[in-house]
Specification:
Length: about 200
């Protein structure tokens, strides 16, 4: 994946409300063994980040210059009813130390049971993983071909993983399973119509 970059600046001596009014978002950079640093990020630039930025390492480029910093987005506080960002927490990563992140699951292949009329029930769309920052995958694949009969399931412990990646979800949790299609009971009107024939 192409490196994701984000411009940051040292936070000005203004209230968070003033910064937001001027189109910036207050942010904090912290990490193992470093003092936390108060930053500000252009709101429009942050909104333009691809979805992958929320689960991958990003490169922070300071407007004052200097060496870019590798970080991951730890938390984004938003207004619940609008796509309005209040605050951002960034974690400076050590490229030699593993981090825990959340990545999407990608369902591949097809289930024979589903082809025969059963229903696929997806319990999870994401997985919590641990790996080195440079090895964070775009997604984790879940192969549906193993689901051959109704009630068959794939647990987190059965998901094939690239080398160096560990799933943090409980291994006995069901990721996806095949269930029998729901039988819809006929209405009283349908029963009466059938009896009249």
């Amino acid at each position: 994946m192409e490196k994701i970059k984000l411009g940051v600046a040292k936070r000005e001596a203004k209230t968070p409300k003033q910064l937001r009014r001027e189109g910036n978002v207050p942010a904090t950079l912290y990490g193992r063994g470093i003092a936390s640093e108060s930053l500000q990020i252009n709101a429009r630039e942050f909104q333009r980040l691809p979805a992958a930025a929320y689960s991958h390492m990003i490169e922070l480029e300071s407007t004052e210059g200097g060496t870019p910093v590798n970080a991951i987005i730890r938390q984004v506080a938003r207004r619940s009813t609008q796509d309005f960002v209040y605050n951002i927490e960034l974690y400076k990563v050590d490229l030699q130390r593993k981090v825990s992140v959340t990545v999407p699951l990608k369902f591949i292949g097809s289930s024979e049971a589903v082809k025969a009329g059963a229903k696929l029930e997806e319990n999870y769309q994401e997985a919590n993983i641990e790996c080195l920052p440079a090895e964070i995958p775009d997604y984790i694949e879940v192969d549906l071909t193993a689901l051959e009969i109704v009630e068959a399931a794939i647990h987190f412990g059965q998901v094939s993983l690239p080398a160096g990646i560990t799933i943090l979800n409980p291994h006995d949790e069901i990721v996806v399973k095949v269930v029998a299609p729901k039988v819809v009971a006929p209405t009283a009107k349908e029963v009466a119509a059938a009896a009249a024939k």
